[in-house]
Design a protein that fits this description.
The protein is α/β, with parallel strands linked by helices. Helix content is 29%, strand content 21%. The N terminus is likely disordered.
């Protein structure tokens, strides 16, 4: 994708805390020889829609890796925003406040790029941001179509009996009969600045979908996911 001319100020935040209950040091665990976070740093740096890029972390090792790869880490994330239960919105709000103070500006768009989605492309970021900039929506979030985990194929157990989570058009329906359903894939959360800072939301009242293919939608949460990612990258080499 070529350069997109825009007068908008766009802040990209890569949130990467040091702790991880599932996989220790997940954000810097090697994937095909380089730390996981580098995959997100590399595509974000190549996205010309982004004005400023920052890594939010509480971890000295992540900070060193980030700065060595050309990304600003001008502040350390507070401890209360680096726990297992810390939420994304206050973490990104903290980054916005710190960067607006440092840069003496007010951003138009804020985008969160989680390191655990290493397969998103530069075009994914650029296209989603441009869609948001060209619309009257409050935010845009990346999604992937659900296939085998469609809600009409899911069940609940009530009083010991199996019941439909959502009633399908016919019993045991083939996938082709089911209406398209999407799930957030974790790759891109972009929002108008005031929606995030004043309304405490990525979504707002109107949120656009950015539909991504399954092969770029793997979100790392386990050792098995790391193995899957390495296989996908190897296949694309």
């Amino acid at each position: 994708m070529g350069k997109i001319e825009s007068e908008n100020e766009v802040l990209a935040v890569i949130p990467a805390r040091g702790g991880s209950r599932g996989v220790p040091k997940k954000n810097i665990r090697p994937v095909k020889g380089k730390p996981l976070i580098i995959y997100t740093i590399e595509v974000a740096k190549r996205c010309e829609v982004i004005t400023d890029l920052v890594v939010s972390t509480d971890d000295p090792e992540i900070r060193k890796i980030s700065t060595n790869n050309g990304v600003e880490v001008p502040f350390i994330r507070p401890a209360d925003l680096a726990t297992d239960t810390a939420l994304a919105i206050p973490t990104i709000q903290h980054s916005v406040r710190m960067m607006e103070k440092k840069k003496k500006t007010v951003y138009d768009i804020v985008v969160m790029l989680q390191p655990t989605s290493p397969l998103r492309s530069v075009n994914d970021i650029s296209e989603s941001l441009q869609l948001l900039l060209d619309s009257d929506a409050d935010g845009i979030i990346s999604v992937v179509q659900v296939n085998n985990f469609h809600p009409m194929k899911m069940k609940k157990i009530i009083e010991g009996f199996l019941v439909n989570y959502e009633k399908p058009p016919v019993e045991n329906p083939p996938r082709q009969l089911l209406p398209p359903v999407y799930i957030v894939n974790g790759a891109i959360y972009a929002t108008k600045r005031d929606t995030l800072m004043k309304n405490d939301s990525f979504i707002g009242k109107k949120c656009l979908p950015y539909i991504m293919p399954e092969e770029r939608s793997v979100n790392i949460d386990s050792i098995l996911d790391f193995k899957l990612i390495e296989n996908i990258i190897s296949d694309n080499e």
